């Protein structure tokens, strides 16, 4: 009798469980199929493309607008956007790729495109029409002669500064600012600032600023074109000595303030919260700053020395995952994304200056002040830009560790010489053929 | 006789079948989502496994590298041990203190209890971690308070000497679950003991050390083990508040493991780290249990 009861209760439980799961899976299926059929009626098979990117709010808004537009024109294609700031973006992307669950379309930058390509994670994009794009940018998206990334914007390195404050102080930047000019200017401004404000960001923890400095000395990038370690010991020592001195004088913030920097965070971005007046940046990042406080900031080219300190890079690439089931649709979308004028209307300069010459010509009359600032920086940098070669495989990991080494030097936990040796060792360990 | 035996066995067997069926969802989850990945990770820990390629056998390579040629590994171990040895005792002491304050018969005590427990509900969340970095930042609440006392603050989170301390404070603030367990333990202590002690003229301090602590020691052991293990696994707060920085001063073991596994995809090495970590936590827990014989008092055993 007891046994019978236990079996009956088991059966009841089982049937309830089955009923629940049946209900659970039944509904969405129906919903999906009606959606699908309505899409099919409008022509073409319904396709959902997952697309991932990182950047500022301005970029998110612009991209979402463009995606909506594309869906309106191609009702069978819809998107599942996954966007965020740069914090944690690549961790998420690598995890997804490792689980063979990468988004169909992924935004990747110059630091890690080689890494993704060398692992065979990127689909061949040779069929995408890039006829109107600067060949230099196109070739930056190649890995072993194969097109794996479509450049989305032209970008240049430089400095962003708080023009509002400088105007108030009556300071005007010279056209061709050298590093000495910049350091002198910073020292001149500092006494006029209130306590807790600094004229210059601590560049000794900023690998891009260091590269600008080394380039201006004519010593090249941190790596050679063929991927060898190229940080110049002497330049490195000088750079750290200068910034250490500035830190002691209180012209750049103490190290413990610099490390709390969080890009585009209104409270924790040292430029946005008014702690510093000068910061190194990429042109394409300008919109992100300008969006938070309009008409405050301006761009100036990388300071020069014996040579120019600036360079031009593709701002970001869109790539297609090699696991994507909809690679053809993704490619069609990418072609539209860079070549179509309507797309350009939505996107404007949210990923740097448009790569297509035709699109640039089309948007030029519509540009806002902040857009023009980007183009101006590009033009100024282009005049004698250093030739950028792609970052070697593993450079992203090296960069993360290099920043840590720079911080150790800035905090005085190690000296520049030992830091140099540590960087050299890390490079040998992390950069792969 | 024989038949009766058979029936007996069938009965035993059939009841357990029903039992296993009932817990089968859990069993399935355990074997598929816990046991199997553990076996896999044990195998991977002996390989060079970059997720996207197939694993390459290394033998003990990962383990030897960890202990001989990886300063970050040693560094993160040190940070973690430092963190555990400060956060656990502080948290337990604080939880006990609050539990004793709440163990009184005051009007509206349940409201206080709820309010005081509240931080623990939200404490491990991302939002609180972000709040924390605003409290201890340069322009944060703490420095503003210090400003009233004309003390010049600093960037507590940005400074390698104080960053770990702010994280310890953050977890101590989440004392709630230990506090509730302590509170339950305190309620179990017979009031007669205190009454008798007071009559004999024992003061509050000696009542605490002679009655409360010994009577509470099994609960303390329980909390100690739980919090030690939890503390070793510290991740969210360190990841969001400090990202392991500045200059690795809050670079917890779990963060390093995460970075190796998910930022650099070195799954083989990360697996080996996870196993070392498991052994370490096991050893520390075993130590705690071994020491417990000396200080944990069970009422049923009688006085020693």
UniProtKB/TrEMBL annotation, chain A:
Matches recorded under SUPFAM superfamilies: Periplasmic binding protein-like II
Annotated Pfam families: SBP_bac_8
Species of provenance: Paenibacillus mangrovi
Protein name: Extracellular solute-binding protein
PROSITE patterns linked to this entry: PROKAR_LIPOPROTEIN
InterPro entries in the cross-refs: Bact_solute-bd_prot1 (IPR050490), SBP (IPR006059)
From TrEMBL, chain B:
Chief place of localization: membrane
Transmembrane segments: 20-39, 79-102, 114-135, 163-186, 207-226, 270-290
Any single Gene Ontology cellular-component annotation: plasma membrane
GO term, biological process aspect, one: transmembrane transport
Domain ABC transmembrane type-1: 77-288
This protein's UniProt keywords: Cell membrane, Membrane, Transmembrane, Transmembrane helix, Transport
Protein family according to the UniProt entry: Belongs to the binding-protein-dependent transport system permease family.
Listed name of the protein: Sugar ABC transporter permease
Organism the protein comes from: Paenibacillus mangrovi
């Amino acid at each position: 009798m007891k046994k019978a009861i236990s079996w009956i209760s088991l059966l009841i439980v089982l049937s309830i469980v089955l009923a629940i799961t049946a209900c659970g899976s039944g509904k969405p299926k129906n919903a999906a199929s009606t959606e699908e059929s309505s899409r099919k009626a409008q022509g073409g098979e319904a396709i959902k493309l997952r697309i991932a990117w990182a950047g500022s709010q301005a970029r998110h808004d612009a991209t979402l607008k463009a995606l909506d537009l594309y869906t309106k024109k191609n009702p069978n294609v819809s998107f599942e956007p996954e966007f965020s700031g740069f914090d944690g973006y690549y961790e998420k992307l690598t995890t997804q790729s490792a689980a063979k669950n990468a988004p169909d379309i992924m935004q990747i930058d110059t630091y890690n495109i080689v890494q993704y390509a060398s692992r065979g994670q990127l689909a061949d994009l040779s069929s995408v029409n890039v006829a109107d794009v600067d060949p230099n940018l196109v070739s930056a998206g190649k890995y072993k002669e194969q097109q794996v990334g479509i450049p989305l914007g032209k970008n240049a390195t430089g400095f962003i500064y708080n023009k509002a404050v400088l105007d108030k102080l009556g300071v005007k930047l010279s056209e061709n600012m050298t590093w000495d000019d910049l350091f002198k200017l910073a020292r001149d401004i500092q006494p006029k600032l209130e306590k807790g404000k600094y004229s210059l960001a601590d560049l000794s923890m900023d690998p891009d600023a260091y590269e600008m400095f080394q380039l201006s000395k004519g010593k090249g990038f941190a790596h050679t074109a063929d991927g060898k370690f190229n940080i110049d010991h002497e330049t490195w020592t000088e750079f750290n000595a200068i910034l250490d001195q500035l830190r002691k004088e209180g012209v750049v913030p103490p190290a413990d303030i610099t490390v709390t920097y969080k890009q585009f965070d209104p409270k924790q971005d040292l430029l946005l919260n008014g702690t510093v007046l000068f910061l190194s940046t990429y042109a394409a990042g300008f919109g992100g700053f300008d969006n938070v406080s309009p008409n405050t900031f301006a761009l100036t080219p990388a300071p020069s020395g014996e040579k120019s300190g600036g360079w031009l890079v593709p701002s970001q690439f869109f790539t297609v995952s090699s696991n994507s089931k909809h690679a053809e649709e993704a490619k069609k979308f990418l072609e539209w994304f860079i070549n179509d004028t309507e797309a350009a209307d939505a996107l404007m300069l949210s990923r740097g200056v448009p790569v297509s010459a035709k699109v640039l010509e089309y948007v030029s009359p519509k540009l806002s002040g902040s857009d023009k600032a980007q183009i101006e920086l590009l033009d100024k940098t282009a005049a004698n830009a250093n030739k950028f070669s792609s970052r070697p495989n593993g450079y992203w990991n090296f960069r993360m560790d290099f920043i840590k080494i720079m911080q150790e030097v800035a905090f005085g936990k190690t000296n520049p010489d030992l830091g140099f040796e540590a960087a050299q060792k890390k490079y040998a360990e992390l950069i792969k053929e | 006789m024989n038949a009766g035996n058979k029936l007996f066995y069938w009965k035993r067997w059939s009841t357990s079948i029903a039992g296993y069926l009932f817990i089968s969802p859990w069993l399935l989850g355990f074997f598929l989502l816990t046991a199997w990945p553990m076996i896999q990770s044990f195998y991977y820990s002996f390989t060079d496994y970059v997720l996207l390629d197939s694993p390459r056998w290394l033998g003990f390579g990962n383990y030897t590298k960890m202990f001989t040629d990886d300063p970050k590994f040693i560094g993160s171990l040190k940070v973690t041990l430092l963190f555990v040895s400060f956060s656990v005792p502080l948290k337990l002491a604080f939880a006990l203190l609050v539990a004793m304050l709440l163990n009184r018969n005051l009007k509206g005590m349940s409201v206080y209890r709820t309010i005081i427990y509240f931080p623990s509900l939200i404490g491990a969340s991302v939002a609180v971690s972000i709040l924390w970095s605003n409290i201890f930042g340069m322009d944060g609440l703490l420095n503003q308070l210090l400003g009233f006392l004309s003390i010049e603050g600093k960037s507590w989170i940005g400074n390698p000497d104080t960053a770990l301390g702010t994280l310890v404070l953050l977890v101590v603030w989440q004392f709630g679950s230990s506090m509730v367990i302590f509170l339950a333990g305190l309620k179990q202590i017979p009031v007669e003991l205190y009454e008798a002690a007071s009559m004999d003229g024992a003061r509050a301090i000696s009542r605490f050390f002679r009655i409360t602590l010994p009577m509470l020691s099994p609960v303390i052991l329980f909390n100690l083990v739980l919090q030690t293990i939890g503390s070793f696994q510290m991740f969210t707060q360190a990841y969001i508040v400090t990202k392991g920085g500045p200059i690795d001063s809050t670079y917890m073991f779990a963060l390093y493991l995460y970075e190796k596994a998910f930022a650099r995809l070195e799954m083989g090495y990360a697996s080996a780290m996870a196993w070392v970590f498991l052994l370490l936590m096991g050893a520390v827990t075993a130590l705690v249990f071994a020491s417990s014989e000396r200080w944990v008092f069970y009422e049923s055993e009688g006085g020693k």
